[in-house]
Structures are given as structure tokens and as C-alpha cells.
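Suppose you are handed only two things: the residues of a chain and a line of SMILES describing zinc ion. What would the bound structure be? This form records exactly that question and the answer produced for it, so the two can be stored side by side and reused later without any lookup.

QUESTION INPUTS
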Amino acid sequence: MFLRLFKRFFLLLLLVQCSQLYCDSTVVDATIVVVATNVTYQDRIAAFGPRLSDEGLFGYLVLVEDIEPDNKKGCSKLKNSIEVENQIVLVERGQCSFIEKVRNMQASGAIAVVVGDNERNGLITMYATGDTSDVKIPSVFVAQSEYRAIKSTIELSKQVEVQLVKDNLLQWPLLDVIIVVILSPTVMMIFIYVLWRIRQRQRRKQDIAPQQVVGNLATKIFFDSKRQENEPQECAICLEDYVDEDELRILPCKHEFHIVCIDSWLTTRKKFCPICKRDICTPTEETPLLTNNEPTP
Ligand SMILES: [Zn+2]
Ligand SMILES: [Zn+2]
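ANSWER OUTPUT
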């Protein structure tokens, strides 16, 4: 019971850790730096499209809302695309999917897209389904407060040059990744093996008789002259004939064997009589001492 609970807890822990690891390797926080003031805004690079280069990406920020107020969410290609050509465009979240926005802005000539959250104040990773290999420009997501701040900066100074700073995916320590990727399955395998061994041992313990119980069973010395007609003359375990002065163990079922043979059978293999399969640990009226109930002090 305890083992099962522990195993479930461990698996859950492992799952959480794996998903965390998976998230860590896909969620990539980056930064938008306003070149003139060096003010930085946190952003998150989309799961699709190219990564940012080592030098980062420089460009002037253009608010789509300023060019086409009814297309501030970038859900269609800009009619007047000259104004966004070779610029980084800022569009608002909503109405259409992230990938649609990026595709529309790419078609309009933008070199990168910043998607600003209009509702909540947290970073999310922009995902897209299907083939996204046509996306050739990077895109990042900023939370509501950053979106508002960047917008007001643009309103104030019109020409805002920014640098989209390289994401930190490649800075993720390679050694850590290798250690985690190699060690996680190994640790799990070792854990499962240890659990399996413990379980086997427990099962084995239930199957065999305790030494003390076996030692309390009756014994006798064999003499052929005293043997009655219905008594066997050979040990059913080793199939050897009894000879005078052999030490025999008598089980509660009255079956007899060499002490060495039956003791080893009961304590290492099964707690049953090899002939009639009766459990020697089950108390009977004749053998009340075989119970494990020891007097409490
Ligand atoms: Zn024997
Ligand atoms: Zn028996």
C-alpha cells in the first residue's frame, strides 16, 4: 500500500519535472532594448519562426494601429505596406491567430513582429500548429504593461529604434541539459529496479516459513527396526532411502523428511509440505506453539 502510494507520488513528481524541463527548453524569454534610452522590456520569442541572431535584431518599431487603425491586430495584410517595410511592427493580440498576424506582417514586408497583450499581464509563448516553415521573420510576445509602455514610447518619440536581443536558448547550459537527459532515465530505471527488488523480497518472505517456526517442529531419529509398515522409507525431497540414525523432521501433517532437506525447502522455497501442500504456518490444535503469537512482556 505504502509502496504503491510512494510509486505514484514519484511518477507524478517525475512527470512534473519532465514537463518543467520541456517548458524550460521551449519557453525562451528575451528582451526588447530601446536603443536611445537603453530601457528594456521583457518579451518571449514565439515557438515558430527563426531564432534571433547573435547580434540581435535592430529596427524601427512601427505601430500598425498608426498606419491602419482598423487593422491594429494585424489580421490582414497591410494595404500600405511601404510604411512597415524593413521595420519591426507592433500588433495587438486577439481576433486571429498569432501565426496569421506574423504571416500578414511578413507579407507586408516587416522584419519582425512584436505582439502586445491587450488583456492580461503575463508572458505566453506563441504557438502555431501545422507547417510553419514559411515564417522567415522572428516574432516576440510582450505582456500588457510592456505593450502599453512601448506604445506610449512610440507616441512620444515617433522614431523608436529597438534591438530584439537574442533569446537565451543557446545559453541554457549544455552540460546541464546533457546531465538531465542522461541521468533522468537512469535514475528512474534504478528506482524502478530497487522497487522491484523490494517487492520481490516481500513476496518471497510471504512464501517461505520463518526459521523459528520451522525449528519448533517435531523431530525424530530414524531406525529401520522401529519403522512401521505404512511409514515411507525414503525422503520425498532428495529421494534417498533413510538409514539408521538419520534425523527427520515431522511436519504437522505427519509427513517426514530429512531435517536438512525439509528445513531448506521451508525456509528458502515454500512454506508448504512438499507432499500434501499443507501450510506449516497455519496453526492447528495439535501444534498451538507454531503460531507466531509470542507473549508480550
Ligand atoms: Zn532428504
Ligand atoms: Zn504433508
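WHAT STANDS OUT: The beta strands are 29-34, 40-45, 57-63, 88-92, 112-116, 139-142, 160-165, 218-221, 247-250, 256-258. Residues 251, 253, 255, 273, 275-276, 278 surround zinc ion (ligand 2) (CB under 6 Å).
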